[in-house]
Write a structure and sequence with these properties.
The protein is mainly α and about 270 residues long. Helices cover about 70% and strands about 0% of the residues. It has nine helices and no strands. α5 packs antiparallel against α6 and α6 runs antiparallel to α7. The longest helix is centred in the middle third of the chain and has 27 residues.
Amino acid sequence: MTATTLAIVFAGLLGLAVGSFLNVVVWRLPLGGKLSSPPSACPRCDHAIRAYDNIPVISWLILRGKCRDCGEPISARYPLVEAATALAFSGIAAAVGAETSMVWALPAFLYFAAISIALTLIDLDTQTLPNKIVLPSLVVGLVLLAIASAGTGNWAALFGAVLGALALFAFYFIVAIVSPRGMGMGDVKLSAVVGLYLGWLGWGTLAVGAFAAFLLGGVFAIALLVVKKAGRRSAIPFGPWMIAGAWLGIALGAQIWNGYLVAVGLS
């Protein structure tokens, strides 16, 4: 088994554990609850979940999606979040492979994947982006990307990350001032985190990731209007589209930007 394969497997197992924790974050944080206590319990009968019933994905399958004590259904979202986090972590590890610069950045992007899942679900549930996740993520992301730049000697990438965070924050802040009903301050704060990661990868990636958020969000909003699931005044969470656009930029931003430059004759 190669080192890359081991990294992919380890990342997947780590993702399962992190996904289990994210379920706690998504459920408790919007309610103002503590993440460390009380222990996980059935939301129906409030019976504490045994350790052997708390194995990510596997326990839910063994119990057939029901509480061992009261027999009431347990939402399929729990194992889906765990599985999605595992797949995301493994996918990132596979994409990084043995590329030296990205190996150093792997912890930063795994962290970004984790908060991406948590913030997407919380925003969909409550239409909020909690400061308790967004603001610390700016600091954690900056530290992890600084470590990546130190490991590779690529300080220009860290400079780009800081500029990207400032530029995207300024843009979103202006949009929020001009159209306060269309852009929340939670989105403005999240834009700094998104800009940090996109900027670390380059200006082309930043441009594609930022544009993709509005493109994807706009297409989704139009689709809801067409099927009459929303009206012109309906509030639609934008955080998930910021995050989706960011990951599109991370995955394909450089290629899309280079293709655009070739198409317009600038490269």
